[in-house]
Structure formats: structure tokens, C-alpha cells
Amino acid sequence: MNGGPRQDPMTDIDSAGLAGTDTSLIIVDDDKAFLQRLARAMETRGFAVETADTVAEGMRKVDQRPPAYAVVDMRLEDGNGLDVIELIRRKRPESRMVVLTGYGNIATAVTAVKLGAVDYLAKPADADEVFLALTRDPTEKAVPPDNPMSADRVRWEHIQRVYELCERNVSETARRLNMHRRTLQRILAKRAPR
């Protein structure tokens, strides 16, 4: 076992696939620590990185200079990252975009892809996953994840998403999920399954 310092997976260098192309990349995420780490990691891979931590700032920067690549968080404090994706698609249709989210939701993934995202990654995604998603040949299928979410986790994520969309109203969430209110309360009180 190596006793040296652990290398951060966010800083592994690999810039294959970017030579001679427009490498402009915008990263929009309100988790500032993650945003800075991912920006540094993408710069080491050859991207010219712009960052934004709000939907408004992201849309302003996209309007000024539509990027060739984008990594956008789905949920930001001031709105939905899909608004940024939609603006990029209008301004620069050939742009390659990846949506990040802590809420793995099939309906949202479908919307993101319809708006032009090339991939949809659950957070926390590392720089290697993001890089591969941005640079993969469009005709090539995505590699299945090494450790996909369990069915229990997918169900829990879906319930949490509906709960948030119902503004944390248990009765309304239970009604929309066609679930007994007490059952929902027990699920919400438990920790997330692995």
C-alpha cells in the first residue's frame, strides 16, 4: 500500500479529445466548493472554464458567450438549471451539455435530454465521469455505472423529489403518490437507503 498522499480524483489529468476544438465550458452549480474543484479539474483537462453559481448568472454568461460545453446543476437556489440548458440550446445548438442532480428522476432526465443534454449524472459526480460524458462520441452508448442506485434508493429519491415539488406538504405528496399519509411519514422519517 502506498503511504504517499492520496490523489484527488477531481484533478487527474486527461485532455484527450479536445485538441484543436473550441474548449469553452460553463459550469453552473450553487455548491461553491464542488464548483471550484470541478472547474480546476476541467481546466487541467484542457477546457477554458467559466463558472456561475446561480441560474441568473449562468444565463447572463451564456447570453454573452454561448459555450461549446456545459455542466449544469438541475436545482439551484434561484431556479431550475434546465432554463440554462434551454438557453444554450437556442444560442448554440451543437453545444454538448451534461446535467448534474442530487435528485435522480426519470422524468427530469427525459426533459434534460429533450432540451439537448448529452448525459445526466447523479451527484456527486467526479471529474472523470463529467469529462467522459462531455467528450464521448455521440454514437457511443454510455457505460453502465459501477455502482448504480438500488431500487430502494431510486424509490426514495422519487418520493423526496415529489415531496419537494409539493413544497414539503405531506398530505399533498401522499395524494400525488397514491400513498397513505402515515406510510409516507414513516418513509420520510427514515434515512436514505444505499
TrEMBL record:
Record has DNA-binding as a keyword: yes
4-aspartylphosphate modified-residue sites: 73
Keyword field: DNA-binding, Phosphoprotein, Transcription, Transcription regulation, Two-component regulatory system
Residue ranges of domain Response regulatory in the record: 24-138
Pfam families per UniProt: Response_reg (PF00072)
Signal peptide range: none
Superkingdom field: Bacteria
CDD domains: REC_RegA-like (cd17563)
GO molecular function: DNA binding
Biological processes annotated in GO: phosphorelay signal transduction system
UniProt-listed NCBIfam families: ActR_PrrA_rreg
Name of this protein: Two-component system, response regulator RegA
Source organism (scientific name): Kaistia soli DSM 19436
